[in-house]
Amino acid sequence: MSEKPVSDIAAEFRRLGKNLREAFEAARDSEELKKLQQELEEGVEVLASSVKRSADEFVHSDTGQQIRQEVKELEEKWKRGEVQSKIRQELLEILRRVNADLDETLARWQAEDEGPSEKSGGTR
Description:
The protein has 124 residues and is mainly alpha-helical. The protein folds into two domains: 1-60; 79-124. It is built from four helices and no strands. It has helices at residues 3-29, 31-60, 62-80, 82-119. The N and C termini lie far apart (72 Å). The relative contact order is 0.03.
């Protein structure tokens, strides 16, 4: 009796597998799917063409030329070490500020922790 439900389940899984395989094959071969695929391919081609055209226009625009010039200037400053020096200075300043803020916060927390114990005679 316990063998029957197990074999029924196995049979249903086999049937499900067969039905899924047939459904996938039918979908793969359907004209609607082929049409959708063609439309997607055409859409991607149009999008790629539009993006390329826009990028080309931007590169040759005044703004594109200005950005190109600024990048070249930044590269020259980098080679001369100006950028690294400025980055080091600003990073050092930021780290000092963060450490100072942490020092203040820790001091305040320690003072708050010590405050109640001193008021109660040194016991917690």
